[in-house]
Every structure is written in structure tokens, then in C-alpha cells.
Amino acid sequence: MPSLKDFRRVLLKISGEGLMGSRDYGLDTTIVGRIAQDIKDVVQQGIQVCLVIGGGNIFRGVKGAAEGMDRTSADYMGMLATVMNALAVQNALEQVGVSTRVQSAIPMSAVCEPYIRRRAVRHMEKGRVVIFAAGTGNPFFTTDTAAALRAIEVNCDALLKATQVDGVYSADPKSDPQATRYEALSYTEVLTKDLRVMDASAIALARENRMPVVVFNMHGQGAFGQVMRGEGRYTIIT
Ligand code: UDP
């Protein structure tokens, strides 16, 4: 089992909902600011950090499709939503003095850099936080899959998935009091038990490339740094 304390480069996946706070839609700038501070603390520990941010707080392709839109167009809207979130997190990080670059899978030269793997790695080596926007750039995927893909591409030691609960449970702990938390799981267990922590394609990609996935709760102040020190509660999938 890999030790979290040994990880030198990690990808943090934050869902769009993770930026919403108690709102129904959009961004809570206080929450975004707190997350930026947490990321700064980890960068200051000498750990290279890159981010993938979802878009579910603004737009989700499946929802648009359910309401009658063409799925492909709806997914492109979802990907554009992730670019908005990436710019918000970039702004918050720069406000706390962290140097950043946004790289989009859909080139948008007036707004950010295009995704270029070697350049992303170089930025991280210089201590910059790289924010990967627009998911994989392809419809019919999710930002979880984008997170697994980018973590593998840029040689991260682990993919950290920030969620609303402190790990993976046997059932939804919010609705089932019998739900128990797993300390560790295998990729195959996640798939066969249908634990729905990430979509199946993301888990399959992580399994094929032996990318450890750490699931933890981003809500508490300093939660990201705590997990990187191997403290606090989380589930590790290997
Ligand atoms: N999306 C996509 N391709 C990708 C990543 C995202 O089409 O590679 C679209 C998809 O419509 C998705 C939306 O972007 O619903 C927002 O991403 P996601 O639902 O993964 O965000 P999260 O749930 O993490 O907030």
C-alpha cells in the first residue's frame, strides 16, 4: 500500500458541487477561497499539485440531454462550465499568492493555455499549480475520467478525489445509518460492488495504470494537507 506521505506530485479532483457551498447553483467565493488556501498549504509542503475541476454546479450534459438537448452540444456546455470554474479557482489561488496556469482541453487562446503535457509538467516542476479545464475535451466523458487520464499522463503519484464524505462507504451514509466506511479498497471491489465513487471508466483507467485513488472530505479547513500527511480519514483505492 503506498504511503500518502511519500507522494510528491498529485492531482486533486474537485467536483463543481464542491465549490457551491450551501448554494443551489454557481460558486461560493468563501468556499473557493478556503480551498485555495488548502492547496497553498500543500504546495508549501513542496508537493506538486495539479487540479481537475468539475462543472456540475453550472451545467451537466446529461441533464441538458434529459431536457431535450442534443447530448453532444450539452456536453460541450458542461465542458465550458469547467473552464469557468477553473478561472475562479485560478483567481482564488493567485489571490493567496500561488502561481497557476489553466490549460484547457478545448483550445481557448484568449483565456488560457491549451493542454500541452510537457508544458504542464514543466509548470509543476517550477511550483505552479496547473488547472486542467474542459475535461477530456470529448463529449460522453466526465471530469472524473479526465482526472484519471491527466493524473496518469503527467505522472502523478496519486489522484485525490475530494467529496462531500470522508471516504467510500458501503452505502450512502446520509440515508443509510448502517453504512460502513472502507479504509482501503481494490479497483475491482469498487467496480464489482458498484460503489459509485467515480464513474467506471475512471476507475478502469486508474486500475489499468495502477494510479492510486484517495477519496476524502474537502470540507474541513486544511483537509487536503492533512490527507497528504497521511492523517485524517480517507479511503485509498489501489
Ligand atoms: N464533460 C464532458 N467531457 C469531459 C468532461 C466533462 O462532456 O471530458 C461535460 C459533461 O457534460 C459533464 C460536465 O462536463 O456533465 C461537467 O462535468 P462533471 O459532470 O464531471 O462535473 P462534476 O460532477 O465533477 O461537477
Automatic annotation (TrEMBL):
<feature type="binding site">
    <location>
        <position position="75"/>
    </location>
    <ligand>
        <name>UMP</name>
    </ligand>
</feature>
<comment type="similarity">
    <text>Belongs to the UMP kinase family.</text>
</comment>
<feature type="binding site">
    <location>
        <begin position="13"/>
        <end position="16"/>
    </location>
    <ligand>
        <name>ATP</name>
    </ligand>
</feature>
<dbReference type="InterPro" id="IPR036393">
    <property type="entry name" value="AceGlu_kinase-like_sf"/>
</dbReference>
<dbReference type="InterPro" id="IPR011817">
    <property type="entry name" value="Uridylate_kinase"/>
</dbReference>
<dbReference type="GO" id="GO:0033862">
    <property type="term" value="F:UMP kinase activity"/>
</dbReference>
<dbReference type="InterPro" id="IPR001048">
    <property type="entry name" value="Asp/Glu/Uridylate_kinase"/>
</dbReference>
<feature type="binding site">
    <location>
        <position position="169"/>
    </location>
    <ligand>
        <name>ATP</name>
    </ligand>
</feature>
<dbReference type="GO" id="GO:0005829">
    <property type="term" value="C:cytosol"/>
</dbReference>
<dbReference type="GO" id="GO:0006225">
    <property type="term" value="P:UDP biosynthetic process"/>
</dbReference>
<comment type="pathway">
    <text>Pyrimidine metabolism; CTP biosynthesis via de novo pathway; UDP from UMP (UMPK route): step 1/1.</text>
</comment>
<keyword id="KW-0665">Pyrimidine biosynthesis</keyword>
<dbReference type="GO" id="GO:0005524">
    <property type="term" value="F:ATP binding"/>
</dbReference>
<feature type="binding site">
    <location>
        <begin position="136"/>
        <end position="143"/>
    </location>
    <ligand>
        <name>UMP</name>
    </ligand>
</feature>
<feature type="binding site">
    <location>
        <position position="60"/>
    </location>
    <ligand>
        <name>ATP</name>
    </ligand>
</feature>
<protein>
    <recommendedName>
        <fullName>Uridylate kinase</fullName>
        <ecNumber>2.7.4.22</ecNumber>
    </recommendedName>
</protein>
<comment type="subunit">
    <text>Homohexamer.</text>
</comment>
<dbReference type="GO" id="GO:0044210">
    <property type="term" value="P:'de novo' CTP biosynthetic process"/>
</dbReference>
<feature type="binding site">
    <location>
        <position position="55"/>
    </location>
    <ligand>
        <name>UMP</name>
    </ligand>
</feature>
<dbReference type="InterPro" id="IPR015963">
    <property type="entry name" value="Uridylate_kinase_bac"/>
</dbReference>
<feature type="binding site">
    <location>
        <position position="172"/>
    </location>
    <ligand>
        <name>ATP</name>
    </ligand>
</feature>
<keyword id="KW-0808">Transferase</keyword>
<keyword id="KW-0547">Nucleotide-binding</keyword>
<feature type="binding site">
    <location>
        <position position="56"/>
    </location>
    <ligand>
        <name>ATP</name>
    </ligand>
</feature>
<feature type="binding site">
    <location>
        <position position="164"/>
    </location>
    <ligand>
        <name>ATP</name>
    </ligand>
</feature>
<keyword id="KW-0963">Cytoplasm</keyword>
<keyword id="KW-0067">ATP-binding</keyword>
<feature type="binding site">
    <location>
        <position position="163"/>
    </location>
    <ligand>
        <name>ATP</name>
    </ligand>
</feature>
<feature type="domain" description="Aspartate/glutamate/uridylate kinase">
    <location>
        <begin position="9"/>
        <end position="217"/>
    </location>
</feature>
<keyword id="KW-0418">Kinase</keyword>
<dbReference type="Pfam" id="PF00696">
    <property type="entry name" value="AA_kinase"/>
</dbReference>
<comment type="function">
    <text>Catalyzes the reversible phosphorylation of UMP to UDP.</text>
</comment>
